[in-house]
Specification:
Number of helices: 10
Largest sheet: 9 strands, mixed
CATH superfamily of the largest domain: Dihydrodipicolinate Reductase, domain 2
Strand content: 15-25%
Structural class: alpha/beta
CATH architecture of the largest domain: 2-Layer Sandwich
Number of domains: 2
Order of helices and strands: EHEHEHEHEHEHEHHEEEEEEEEEHHE
Number of strands: 17
Radius of gyration: 21 Å
Distance between the termini: 44 Å
Shape: globular
Helix content: 25-40%
Length: 389
C-alpha cells in the first residue's frame, strides 16, 4: 500500500489535531487512499521540536522548515503555523513538488493567496485548505438537500460564528490579535470558516456591506512559546500591547444567484463557546445547523402534509454522509476530531486521484477576496464588489 511521508510545520493546537488524524484515518477509512507517515515535525527551537516529535509521534524533528520542504523523502507539507508564514512555506513547498495542506485562512490577504494558488497550479501538486467544518456530516447532508432541490430555490441565509474566549480584556495578547502575524482578527480566525460554509452551501458572493469593530484596543502581553488564545489565566495588571485587528464584524451579502443574507462573527460574545451555524430558507423549505449540536440537522419541508409541517431533527448516523466509516449506531455522534479525520481522508484521496482537495487553494483565494472586501466595506461603509479584490 502506498505510503506518504509528512512534514508538519508548527506544533500547537492544530498540529496536535492533524497528528491525531494521521494516526486514526486508516482505521476509519480502510483501505485508505494512502498511509500517512509522520516523518518529521518542525518548530522554532530544539526543545519545542523534539518535544513535539515525542508527543505527536513523528520519527524526526527539525528547526528549519526551508531544509525540510526540499527533502526528497517528503511527499506532503502540512502548514500549521501562524497566518503570516503560510505563503512563504506553501510557495517553497510547491516549487519543491510537495502536496500541501494549509491551515486556514489561506493567507494574510488576497494578493498572498493568489501567489499561493499560482504556485500550486504551476507545480501541479494537490492542495487543500483546512476549512474542516464543511466536512461535518450534517453540513454535507444540508448540501445534498439543497442540490437535490428539496428546499427549492434559496431565498435567504443567515450565518454566524460566535465565540467568547476573547471577551475578557484580560485575555493574553495572542498572535491572533496582531495584524502583522494574523492579517485580521475575528474575520480571518472564525469568520472565514462561516464564509466558507455559506459559500459552499449557497454559492458565490457578489458583494458585501459590512460593519467591522475592535472592542478591546489592548491586551496583556503573553509569556511562553505557546499561544494562549483561550488561557484560563487572566492578568490585567502587567504590561499590555495594542490590538490592531477586528474583534467582530457583521456583513450583508448579495449572492450571484440572487439570494440575500448576512453573516456575523465575533470572539467577544459571552456565553457562546463555539457557536458556528446557519439557517437557509428556500421556496420549498428551510435548514438549520448549529455546530454545538453538530450531529443534528433541522429540516422543514413544505411538501409535508400541513398537519406535520415544522422542523424535524435528523440525527446523523450510518445512513448519512461518511456514516458507514464512523460509528455504527445512529446517535452515537461524531466530534471535532472525527471531522478532521474526514478532512484527512479527503486530502489523501485527492492526492491519490491527482486533483486539488476540497476546499482547494482556489477556494481559499476566493474567501480571501471576500474577506478583503469585508475589510474595505468596514472602512467605506458602502457595498463592495468581490470582483474588485
Amino acid at each position: 500500500m502506498r505510503k506518504l511521508n509528512i512534514a508538519m510545520i508548527g506544533t500547537g493546537f492544530m498540529g496536535k489535531a492533524h497528528s491525531l488524524c494521521y494516526s486514526a484515518m486508516p482505521s476509519f477509512f480502510w483501505p485508505p487512499p494512502a498511509i500517512p507517515v509522520r516523518k518529521i515535525v518542525v518548530d522554532v527551537n530544539d526543545a519545542l521540536a523534539s518535544g513535539a516529535r515525542d508527543r505527536l509521534g513523528f520519527e524526526e524533528y527539525a528547526t528549519n522548515w526551508q531544509d525540510v520542504v526540499t527533502r526528497s523523502d517528503i511527499d506532503v507539507v502540512d502548514i500549521c503555523t501562524p497566518n503570516n508564514s503560510h505563503a512563504e512555506i506553501a510557495i517553497a513547498a510547491a516549487k519543491a513538488g510537495k502536496h500541501i495542506l494549509c491551515e486556514k485562512p489561506l493567507a494574510m490577504d488576497a494578493t498572498e493567496a493568489k501567489a499561493m494558488l499560482d504556485a500550486v497550479e504551476a507545480a501541479g501538486v494537490t492542495h487543500m485548505v483546512a476549512f474542516n467544518y464543511r466536512q461535518t456530516p450534517a453540513v454535507i447532508m444540508a448540501k445534498q438537500l439543497i442540490e437535490s432541490g428539496r428546499i427549492g430555490e434559496i431565498l435567504t441565509v443567515r450565518g454566524q460564528y460566535m465565540q467568547d474566549w476573547s471577551a475578557d480584556p484580560g485575555t493574553p495578547l495572542s498572535w491572533r490579535f496582531q495584524k502583522k502575524l494574523a492579517g485580521s482578527g475575528a474575520l480571518g480566525d472564525v469568520g472565514t470558516h462561516v464564509i466558507d460554509m455559506v459559500r459552499y452551501l449557497v454559492g458565490e458572493f457578489e458583494s458585501v456591506n459590512a460593519i467591522v469593530r475592535t472592542h478591546i484596543p489592548e491586551r496583556p502581553l503573553q509569556t511562553g512559546a505557546f499561544d494562549k488564545m483561550a488561557s484560563a489565566s487572566r492578568d490585567s495588571s502587567g504590561p499590555k500591547g495594542p490590538v490592531d485587528v477586528d474583534d467582530a464584524f457583521i456583513t450583508m451579502i448579495r449572492f450571484e444567484n440572487g439570494a440575500a443574507g448576512f453573516i456575523e462573527a465575533t470572539r467577544n460574545a459571552y456565553g457562546h463557546h463555539n457557536g458556528l451555524g446557519f439557517e437557509i430558507n428556500g421556496t420549498r423549505g428551510s435548514i438549520i445547523f448549529d455546530y454545538q449540536r453538530m450531529n443534528e440537522l433541522k429540516v422543514m419541508l413544505a411538501d409535508d402534509p400541513q398537519d406535520l409541517q415544522g422542523f424535524r431533527t435528523l440525527h446523523m448516523g450510518p445512513a448519512h454522509p461518511y456514516g458507514e466509516h464512523l460509528w455504527p449506531i445512529p446517535g452515537l455522534g461524531v466530534g471535532y476530531i472525527d471531522v478532521k479525520i474526514i478532512e484527512c481522508f479527503n486530502f489523501f484521496k485527492a492526492i491519490a486521484e491527482g486533483r486539488p482537495g476540497e476546499p482547494s487553494f482556489r477556494d481559499g483565494y476566493q474567501i480571501s477576496r471576500i474577506a478583503d472586501a469585508i475589510v474595505a466595506s468596514g472602512v467605506s461603509q458602502k457595498w463592495e464588489r468581490i470582483s474588485d479584490f
